[in-house]
Design brief:
Helices cover about 65% and strands about 0% of the residues. It is mainly α and about 180 residues long. The longest helix is centred in the last third of the chain and has 24 residues.
Length: about 180
């Protein structure tokens, strides 16, 4: 019987804690991702997780790390003992950018196109949509320049500006690839 999602999440959380402790203790990389109950076997934690069908409707509501694990199960391109694990704070920021994109798509996108505002803005001034994103990237960089010069911002903080900058950069890639492939 496969473990439930809650049990798999608990296992993953425990594995992350083991990784943090192992890293802090200076243990070799090979010992970072092991089964909490079978530390001698060096069984990767991802092998302990249940196999499940992808429910694409629910996927948007699952945390990003669960999505990455699902992708590993689908494509077999997960963490190996030879790879250095990524930064957990970085992965948490990716989840934050994902949530930011989903929420802003509600305000700016349309029912059929989450990037409608960017496309329409670019069309209004006669440029490719990915270049429209670059204009927004330039705005965010200018805001950061202001902060670097004055040490303050009035409306939006540095952290929010950097999150927006990362999101616009990713959106520019999506739109650039779309234009190249389409």
């Amino acid at each position: 019987m496969s473990p439930s999602i809650a049990e798999a999440n608990a296992t993953l959380r425990q594995a992350v804690e083991i990784r943090r402790e192992s890293q802090a203790a200076g243990k070799p990389l090979e010992e970072w991702y092991v089964s909490p109950s079978e530390t001698d076997s060096l069984q990767p934690v991802t092998e302990m997780l249940p196999e499940r069908q992808v429910d694409w409707d629910r996927l948007a509501d699952e945390p990003y790390i669960e999505h990455l694990l699902e992708q590993q199960r689908l494509h077999g391109d997960g963490i190996t003992h030879e790879q250095r694990p990524g930064s957990l704070p970085f992965l948490e920021l990716l989840e934050e950018v994902r949530q930011l994109h989903l929420s802003k798509s509600q305000d700016y996108g349309s029912e059929s196109d989450p990037l409608a505002n960017i496309r329409q803005g670019a069309e209004f001034v006669g440029i490719e949509p990915w270049r429209g994103c670059m204009v927004r990237v330039a705005d965010k960089v200018q805001r950061l320049r202001t902060f670097c010069k004055t040490g303050r911002l009035v409306h939006e903080g540095v952290r929010d500006t950097l999150l927006d900058l990362s999101a616009y950069s990713l959106l520019a890639i999506v739109l650039f690839d779309e234009g190249r492939d389409g």
